[in-house]
Amino acid sequence: MKSDCFPRAGLTLIEVMISLALISLLLLVTYTGSLFVFSHHRQQSHHFKEEQNLRQAMDAIEKRFRELNQQEITYHSAQKSFNSRIPRTDFPGMTTVWIDFSGVNRNRLNTWLYFDRTSGTLRVNKNNEHNVLYTGIEDILIKEVISGKLIEITLIGRRIDREQTLTLKLSYRCDDS
């Protein structure tokens, strides 16, 4: 005797195909969303890292300027460089130290900081070592706000559309020769 009161056991082929299609669609949407989120996160991390790099480079510039003898700073606007005389550490006397933002690879000894435009790096060359301190710098701009008293230094990032600006109150001599 056949009874129609009990439901059939099992699934039909159409039901299995619809279930697989829905699960595949759900997995595809989840995968695409995850790729978007991870890509966006990676991009934001990269921008944050580059911005932090510019801030740290600016801090290094400020630190070096603070270490200079404030009464002995000379600014050479044509070369975008500064020099100062400081006491020697190895024996009595004075030595000249340099901070150069011209963008040219600097081979002069006692260069506390210099900007190399071709590699986009901020470097130190105290003893011909050319150590890289920071990377990803497109340009360094110098603007004299008040001649001999106030200078503004702007770092422009190479890989991101960002810049950092530092305004320093210094007493310096201008050498426009």
TrEMBL record:
Entry keywords, A to Z: Membrane, Transmembrane, Transmembrane helix
UniProt KW Transmembrane keyword: yes
Transmembrane regions listed in the UniProt entry: 16-38
InterPro entries named among the record's database cross-references: N_methyl_site (IPR012902), Pilin-like (IPR045584)
Keyword match Cell membrane: no
Protein name stated in the entry: Prepilin-type N-terminal cleavage/methylation domain-containing protein
UniProt source species: Anoxynatronum buryatiense
